[in-house]
Hints:
By secondary structure, the chain is mainly alpha-helical. The protein has 2 domains: 1-91, no CATH class; 100-148, no CATH class. It is built from 7 helices and 2 strands. The protein has helices at 2-28, 50-64, 83-91, 106-109, 118-128, 134-139, 141-147, and strands at residues 67-72, 75-80. It has a two-stranded antiparallel sheet. The mean pLDDT is 80.
Amino acid sequence: MLILLLLGVLVTYVLVTWVNAVREKRKSKLDGPALLPVVGYGHRLIGLDSAGLIRVFGEFAEAYNDAAFAQILDERYVVLSHPKYVEHIISSTEIITKGRSYNFLHPWLGQGLLTATGYRWKSHRKFLTPAFHFNILASFLPVFIKTS
């Protein structure tokens, strides 16, 4: 009896997770690969090295154009492949809240520019911005040309 109850709970969890993922995909109005229950798109990424990941996401970008919806386990992602969308996100001073997938970096990197949000991120960025000013980078241009 306990096994049937656990099996029922597991099946219910899988169905609810899958229905929610499909609902989120429809709400996003973005194309994307077919989602498997629970794992989403994650089954395509298991066991891949970095070159394999780049290849898979390259295929993803070709198949779904500029922006696509993907789910890996219970995390939902919007995958951007057009430079104008990526530039908008990277240059924004308002879209700075990181997703849960950054949490594993906190023990190694702390609350630095890569992982911080809010006021802490803004203060770190303000501190580092002068180091990457165009005039400073221009002085390194001969080195860039020589070593590239």
